[in-house]
Amino acid sequence: MKILWITSVYPSDEKPGLGVFHETQVQALIRQGVEVTVICPVPRNPVLIRYTRKKYRANQGIPFQYLRKGVTVYRPSYLALPGQLRWAQPDKRIAASILKTMSDYQIETDLIHAHFAMPSGGATRIVAEQKKLPWVLTLHGSDVNIYPNFSASAKKAFKQTVQAANQVIAVGESLKKRAKELAGRDSIVLPIGIDLAKFQQTSETKTQLRRRLNLPEYKKIVVFVGRLTKAKGVFELAHSLEWLSNDVALVFVGDGPAKEKLLQHSDINRRLYLTGQVENESVKDYLFASDILALPSYTEGMPTVVIEALALKTPVICTAVGGVPDLFGEHCPLLIKSKSVSSLVNRINDILNRNLFTPEVQDQLYENIQKNYHADHNGALLNDVYTRTIESIYVTE
Q1: Alpha carbons 359 and 295: distance in angstroms, whole number
Q2: Is 396 exposed, middle or buried (0-12, 13-18, 19+ CB in 10 A)?
Q3: pLDDT tens-digit series, residues 296-349
């Protein structure tokens, strides 16, 4: 079976951590015998904007075509303007870049799998219609909870895309419910999951890991892993350091627009560290070397790093947003409210000083991950979705 993935983010050698959750699922599909090709359209902003704003030069240096872990990835460009998802969807421009790539490189597929309703889903709707191909849409979070609220036209585009797909997948129950409210369309819940074989206890001790990673050996470490943005709650987390004891340090793993501002605080008593972007294989080392993972986001889909931390039995501080409550089940009271420094400080102290994450709680959260978020198990379920979708088209015809 040949499947074409269309997504706005996918890892490269230059940016190995960007969209790594996609790569995890693709590799699981490959182990199922599915042949996957990825098209990851890249926004190309007008020259003046690229010159004046550094963030609009982020994709420079990444090749148009590359092979990564046995998967061919194409990155065609399309003309984009800042904030376009708020007022005018770039569906047609993205679709044109995809269609040209498929034509130029003779890409054949049995089904298209689009990730994020906006903008990839909208473009895929056009491509699938022209190519007369079945397509599946996965909803991840921001495409449901944020983008449709930008404007009436954005909500209309979301509804049109979700209703057009042959099958809709949500990575969590909350997204399924919200998509139903917005578009009147049912979806199935299928998280991406993680490769649990890679998230086992390491032979290295915490002290050995900290030495290798150049982390403080004798402090309690709270680690953040993800894109450094305001919406991830990184500034509240940094501010919490002022209210925590001197034996607590913060480590930010990742890159993003908030990095420059965080760097201004990186020398506070040598208690705030920024590692930059790291390979996904190294994330588990930072999680295991730390005492707590903190992800105080304003909004989320189904954060992979939380699944990874729970698989390692690392205590997690997270906000009750997106699909996170699905991960915690009956232990949802452990979640905190967003945009609250005091909640962060209190919860960090609860875990470090009052043993809030007991071994029993850690074991129960671990079992939930093992049961529901194994990438290979969920990859097999996704393979079944592909097969049923393709077969249903032939039956209809």
Answers
A1: 21
A2: exposed
A3: 999 888 888 999 999 999 999 999 988 899 899 899 999 999 999 999 999 999
